[in-house]
Amino acid sequence: MTDTSSLPVYPHRHLLGIRELSPVDIELLLDRADAAVAISRRHEKKTSTLRGRTQINLFYEASTRTQSSFELAGKRLGADVMNMSVASSSVKKGETLIDTAMTLNAMRPDILIIRHASAGAAALLAQKVGCSVVNAGDGAHEHPTQALLDALTIRRAKGRIAGLSVAICGDILHSRVARSNILLLNALGAGVRVVAPSTLLPSGIAQMGVTVCPTMAEGLKGADVVMMLRLQRERMQGAFVPSIREYFRYFGLDAEKLKAAKDDALVMHPGPMNRGVEIASEIADGPQSVIQEQVEMGVAVRMAVMEALLDPRRRPSEDYA
Ligand code: NCD
Asked: Among 25, 37, 57, 237, which has the highest number of CB atoms less than 10 A from its own CB?
């Protein structure tokens, strides 16, 4: 990439969650990602940092931006990238996650990117395979690269993370994005508020170091960043909200509710968006929205993470020991 030999060696082999990262680890990844943004904006985007390395994307859940940005990130670093299409693989014939992982491991990849509906799937895989593992979302547990790309977007727009007020709004209960963001923002010294109906808040959320706000008016008051979350209806059994119309009326972000935040507050959404459910189109496409920047930062962050994990200075001899 740029001259990475001057950057400190990243101390971890896997990226399983934000919880295991120190503030220094996080800043190091964000600094590397800043350099990767410049590469993606060039006419010639290909580098040779991961030339000769093999990356496998193993996605058990639907994904548009996360899978494609991991693929592009790998290609921009010069890696050979393979997308395992779970829908047409032996997984459909009943193969277990571990058996699939062991089969892929025997092909000697250097890095495995996994998304799975069960919390802990990435950590389990990391114990079984001989390569680096990146968690691209495990159930309602963590989605570390999403939190990193959100932090990069905020840091580039506001110049800092510490001291900012961030309101995370919507379906916190089912959201790995919310969990990873809360951990990261707290680690870097931001103040986090969560706004949701009580049915969409996990029990014990206050112990994660956030302020719980029952209304958008309260949660958005003076906020620097408003992060909206998708209502994850595919993870809901039963009714968590009375009706979509009522949900939008009380918790959907529209121009009126956004007035409570600072005039220059950023509006964010990890995607995919449900327009008219958690966010009005005029806001999603409006001047305060940085939703497209988030997508751009996603490629940069994934380049930074893979490059850091596969840093050849990090004792490569221990791989496949
Ligand atoms: C999120 C996810 O999959 O957890 N999306 C994403 O990674 N871009 C959030 C969501 O699905 O709502």
From this structure: 57
In the predicted structure, residue 320 carries a pLDDT above the cut 50: no
Pair 316, 289: CB distance under 8 Å: no
Q: The domain spanning residue 84 has which CATH number?
A: 3.40.50.1370
Q: Are strands 165-169 and 111-116 parallel, antiparallel or unpaired?
A: unpaired
Give the distance (Å) from ligand 1 centre to CA of residue 8. 31
Instruction: Give yes or no for residue 321 having a pLDDT over 50.
Output: no
Ligand 1: does its nearest atom lie under 6 Å from the Cβ of 298? no
Ligand 1 neighbour 169 (Cβ under 6 A): no
First to last CA, the chain: 27
Q: Classify residue 100: in a domain, yes or no.
A: yes
11 CA to middle of ligand 1, Å?
27
The atom number, within ligand 1, closest to the CA of 146 reads 7
Q: In terms of domains, do 216 and 302 share one? A: no
Is residue 315 scored above 70 in pLDDT? no
108: confidence class by pLDDT, cuts 50, 70, 90: very high
Confidence at residue 316, expressed as pLDDT on a 0 to 100 scale: 55
Please write the tens of the pLDDT for every residue from 235-267: 777 677 878 999 999 999 999 999 999 999 999
State whether 26 and 163 are in the same domain. no
Q: Which atom of ligand 1 is nearest to the CA of 232?
A: 12
Residue 251 belongs to a domain: yes
Is residue 318 assigned to a domain? Answer: no
Q: Please, are residues 197 and 250 in contact by the beta-carbon 8 Å criterion?
A: yes
